[in-house]
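Hey L., structure's done. Input below.
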Amino acid sequence: MARAEYSEVSIVKRIWHNSWFRGLAIAIIVGLVTHFGFPYIDDLIAEPTVEITSPMDGEEAQWTPAGHLVTGTCRKVRGDLHLYIAVHPLPTDSWYVQRMPTIMDGNWQGVAFFGQEKIGIGDRYGLCAFISSKTLHEGQIIATEDFPDHVAKAVVTVSRLAAHNQK
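Output:
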């Protein structure tokens, strides 16, 4: 009796063409992608986002020499994109770029200055966190009409209180 010789390629083809095996392989692949892959796929197609979590819109901010802690969340700030914080004394048309915030695991924190120790007490300020490919620098002043192109932006309004040692 002659023995049939099979090459490795023909064995793989025979196994793959077996519909039961093919269904099992597809089910395993789909299960792995569903379990492990969706966070990565979502990360590839999701747009950059930014939110300000503190201070909240309408809150009061007290002046300190170290500035006011500002926190938030962001997503997909990578490559040529940068996260910036800017302060806008209302009703002027100027935005003051603050020190770049630090980002860790989708959370960011930075420091914003709402006026100076004795200037700006009782005034309202716009606080903006935005993601842009533009290169900006701390202390840079931007007119509202020249605000840089951005892919994501969050804005809150705060009222400035006196320094805690002032009455």
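The longest strand covers residues 152-161. The chain has two helices and ten strands.

-- N.
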